[in-house]
Structure formats: C-alpha cells, structure tokens
Write a structure and sequence with these properties.
A hairpin with a 5-residue loop joins β13 and β14. The protein has 17 helices and 21 strands. α1 packs parallel to α16, α4 packs across α17 and α13 packs across α14. It is α+β, with helices and mostly antiparallel strands. The radius of gyration is 24 Å and the shape is globular. The strands form five sheets. Strands 1, 2, 8, 9, 10, 11, 20 and 21 form an eight-stranded mixed sheet that branches. Strands 13, 14, 15, 16, 17 and 18 form a six-stranded antiparallel sheet that branches. The chain has two domains: 290 residues, FAD/NAD(P)-binding domain, CATH 3.50.50.60; 174 residues, Alpha-Beta Complex (Flavocytochrome C3, Chain A, domain 1).
C-alpha cells in the first residue's frame, strides 16, 4: 500500500468517481442519495463515456418490466445463462451477484433519476434455442428517448455517437426489418427526433445518468485526468487530478471508484493484456487503460478471460470527432443475404452471421507454419446485396466510394484483384449458393441463431434471413481489419461482491472500487451478451457507492441461502 499523502488537499468530497460513463455516474448518484458528496472526474471534454457509444441495451434477467408484460423469467434462469457464458472463468457467487443486483439497481435508478426503460420486443438472448436458460425476449431493455434539451448547458457536452442511429429506438429499427432494411426506416420520425434532440440508444441512456448527476448538483469535471491515487498506507483516500491550471489533490472520505472503461486505444496494452494485434477502434482516444495505471501501484489484482478480435473498416472520407478515420464495425454487414466472408484461400471459415463464434476464427493460429489462416479476410458481396442493403454507411442509392475495396464483373477477376485463390472462391460461392437456395448452412449453421436475424439479417428474406445467393455481378470485396470491441475488454481489475478492488493478497484494497469495463469480466467469461456491459456499469456503480456509504447490499447472501448454493 502506498503512502503518498499531499501536503494539503485542494478539494474534498465523500466519493470520487473517475470516468463519466454509466459506472462513474451511477456511483456518484448513489452516493448523493445516501447523503454524501460526490465528484465525477472525466479526462475528455464530454461526459457520457463509452456508454454513449453503445447501442444502449441493458441486459437484466428477471426484471420487473418483463414481468409486467407477462414474460416469464427468473433469477435462477438468468444465473444459469450467465453461468454458461462464463465457461468456468467466474465463480458462481460472482455470476449470481451480477444477476441478483442488476434488477434492483434498475429499479433504484428508475425511482431516483427517472430512468425510463422498456423491453425490446422480439429481441432474444444470443443463445436462444441453443441454451435452455436463454429467453426469446424480456431481458434486453432500452431507454425511452431522452430529451437532450433538458441537459441545459450540458446538452452539447454530453457525448453522442457518430456510428449509432441515435434518433431511432430498437423498436423502430427492428419493426422496419433491422439494419439490413435501413432504406425502409422511418427517416421522417428519425429527423423529428434529431431536430428535437431526443436521444435513443447509448446516447439516450448516458444522458439519463448525466441529467441525474446534474439535478443533484454533482460536479462534473471535464478535461480533468486522474493521474494518481492517493493512499495513507491503509486505504485509498483521494486522487491527484491534472487540470488545465495544474494538479489538484482531491480528498475522498468514503472512497474512489475507478470507472474509466478499457484500454483499446493503447496498442501496447492490446498486445500484452488483450493479446490482440493492432486494433482500430470506435472509441475516443482517452480510453487508454488508466484503470491499470491508477490501481497497479496499490497492488491491484488483474484478471482476464479469452476474448475475440472484432472486425471493422474505415470508409474513405469519413472521420471521427478527433479527426481520425472513423471506424465502423463490420457486424451488421456480415450476416446479410448475398454476402459471405473468405480467407486468402478463397474459402469460408465460419458462421458470418453470429460474431461470437465467427470472430474467434480470426486469431486462430496455424502452428505448422505459424500464421493466421483466416486473416486477412474479405467480405464478398454481389450486386443483389448492393442493390438491396446498406453496406454499413453506404446505402444502395449512393455511389460506391472510390478506393474502397475491389469491384469486378466476375469472381475470378475479383479474386485476382485482392490476391486470393480464384478457383476456390468460385467453388466456395457455388457451394454457398446451394445452401442459400435451401435455406440451410450445413457447414457453419449460418442463420440458426434467432439473434442473427434480429441483428444483421433480413427477416423479409426467405427461406433464411441470413442466406442469399451471390450470382449477379459486379461483385465487391472489402478487406476487413481488426478492431476493438467498443471498450469491452477481456482484461480488468478483479473485484469482490461490493465492487471493491482486490489485491494480490486476496484482500480488498480499502477505499478503492471499480465499475463497468474497468472490472475483470469474470462473471461473463469468454462470452459476452449485448446489454451486459451497460448493466455491469450501472450495477457496479450502485454496489460500490452503497458499500462506501456504509450500506453494503446483503442480497447476495439472501439469494445464496434461498438457492442453496
């Protein structure tokens, strides 16, 4: 434990939250509700964190909103589902802790800050029909559109997403046929929402918590980087914050919550912690692994789980808010009809429509000659797909950007242009076309997960929402690059049931808590599920502040006794 007390303190609060996503904001709001003062410290110029960059789903098993609609679910079923996802990496107690508390945290923020959530109709768990504990709908929630104008002076300081259609709800998107049918979306309604600044998805969810903090007068320090945690030899008692006018030593009487998300904008961290090579990223540059830098000198214990490399690309001419090429995920495009993905041999290698299985194939190593057999890889599309569906941000009525991949009249010409095996490509496409006509993919099971139809398929396309022939030229090929997972890391700080950071001596570090994506992903293990990350941020922040304020939750012990674990 450190002993690095300053000569004097410049400011004093009961709880200091580092990071302004769901984890940090929820911790600060909770502390205030317990009558304690709180501060939120944010390195960037905007608040909302990576919560605002997400699709905004919140996964909560056995929640009261689903119950009100007559949807059957339970803590036991949610526990069984996450236990499968954990694959043995998380303990039963850590898994149950997440499930038990998420629904109570949800109610807390509904009551205290006016958070308004609703069930995403028809949205299944990833592994519905493949797992006995999965459900067809009810666990996936989204916020009711948030009126951005109510943020006042903070309206333009609260983060939006350049990648997400935040003027649409999931209901709007899916009722129109999902992302594949973007051209059928109600753009008039979307335009009205954007004009009124009614925020949906992640920007809306983040805004609810920002408004909750503002309503309580909780200071939000932007452009304020937490440089060092301060300890007195026994516990964490504050933080050194770098602001424009110099260092500020902030005393934290009850504790410090580290909620700074991930490390994917640090390539050295990607390699050494995430074991992932050169990643592009959809997140902003301050996502640089500050959780390890801050907690490491205190002996914080780290943990990691196996993870996957996502795929994405940059479209020529598109830039993010910092002037860098704007990264877009390939997720929505890969499972559309009339598309497929091949490696340099011109062969398919997985279920393109279900990224949780497909992306694991990217970093697979062929040990005989030490290379990645499935990377690089290319998404192949024919003119049927080009005429029907958007390719990420490129709609059918737009010209194909010059220099974006390759375009050729025949598959043989396309293969020659990108340097892959042309004979194999032709054979692979022919085989794929037979599967598409039958509506089944015996090679990789494409279209066998209902979630795939919801996420990237075309529900109006029969007989399989994710399968369509590649017959019509010209044909298109776009090489994909490795990309981070929107700051959902495989590696993080290990915490206990109260979100206290654990040391290597298996004892909690007094006064130090972690929330959200700063926390090791043990309870979900090697598999993620949409909505879990936002739920973790909200729940961890709530648990951390409760403990810091002297009211630790006893719900876990009660559930353990009830279930006989």
């Amino acid at each position: 434990m450190l002993n690095n007390l300053p000569e004097k303190w410049d400011a004093e609060f009961d709880l200091v939250a580092i990071g302004s996503g769901a984890g940090g904001l929820c911790a600060a709001i909770t502390a205030h509700e317990y009558g304690q003062s709180a501060l939120v410290v944010e390195k960037s110029s905007q608040v909302g964190g990576v919560t605002a960059l997400s699709m905004g789903e919140v996964w909560v098993a056995g929640n009261h909103l689903a119950e009100a609609e007559g949807i059957e679910d339970s803590v036991e079923a949610g526990f069984g589902y996450l236990r499968t996802l954990s694959m043995g990496y998380g303990s039963d107690l850590s898994i149950l802790n997440k499930v038990v508390h998420a629904r109570h945290a949800l109610k807390f923020f509904e009551e205290k800050v006016g958070l308004r959530m609703e069930v995403i109709k028809g949205c299944p768990d990833y592994y519905y029909k493949h797992n006995d504990h999965a459900v067809a709908e009810g666990r996936m929630l989204e916020c009711v559109p948030f009126p951005g104008a109510t943020l006042g002076d903070w309206q333009h300081k609260t983060r939006l997403s350049p990648q997400m259609p935040y003027g649409m709800t999931h209901h709007d998107i899916f009722s129109a046929g999902g992302s594949a049918n973007m051209m059928k979306w109600d753009f008039a309604r979307m335009g009205e929402r954007l004009t009124r600044d009614e925020r949906c998805l992640g920007p809306g969810l983040a805004a609810y918590f920002v408004k909750g903090a503002l309503d309580r007068g909780i200071p939000l320090w932007t452009e304020s980087a937490a440089e060092e945690l301060i300890a007195d030899g026994e516990r964490v008692v504050g933080v050194r914050v770098r602001r424009a006018d110099g260092d500020v030593f902030v005393k934290a009487n009850k504790g410090v919550v580290v909620a700074v998300s991930s490390y994917e904008r640090r390539q050295d961290f990607n390699r050494t912690l995430g074991q992932q090579l050169e990643l592009g990223s959809m997140v902003f540059s301050s996502i640089d692994g500050a959780n390890f830098r801050l907690a490491g000198p205190l002996g914080a214990r780290n943990a990691n789980v196996p993870d996957i490399t996502s795929l994405g690309f940059t479209v020529p001419g598109e830039e993010d808010e910092e002037g860098y090429p704007l990264w877009r995920t390939a997720l929505s495009a890969l499972g559309q009809p009339h598309t497929m993905v091949v490696n340099r041999k011109g062969q398919r290698f997985g279920n393109e429509a279900f990224y949780r299985s497909f992306y694991y194939k990217i970093d697979q190593i062929e040990g005989s000659d030490q290379h990645h057999p499935n990377f690089p890889c290319w998404v192949i599309m024919d003119s049927q797909g080009r005429e029907k569906y958007p390719f990420v941000s490129i709609t059918p009525d737009q010209e194909w950007p010059a220099g974006f991949g390759a375009v050729a009249d025949t598959l043989e010409e396309l293969a020659a242009m990108i340097g892959i095996d042309g004979k194999n490509l032709v054979e692979t496409v022919a085989r794929f076309n037979r599967f598409a006509e039958l509506g089944e993919d015996p090679d990789f099971g494409r279209g066998s997960h209902p979630w795939s139809e919801w996420m990237c398929g075309d529900p109006f396309h029969k007989p399989n929402a994710n399968l369509g022939t590649l017959l019509k030229g010209p044909f298109y090929a776009v090489e994909m690059k490795r990309m981070g997972g929107t700051a959902i890391p495989s590696h993080g700080l290990l915490t206990d049931q109260h979100s206290r950071v654990m040391g290597w001596d298996d004892k909690p570090i007094e006064g130090l808590y972690a929330a959200g994506n700063s926390v090791a992903r043990m309870e979900t293990g090697a598999v993620m599920q949409s909505g879990v990350s936002n739920a973790r941020g909200m729940t961890h922040g709530w648990l951390a502040a409760r403990h810091a304020c002297g009211d630790p939750s006893k719900l876990l012990e009660q559930e353990v006794a009830r279930l006989g674990l």
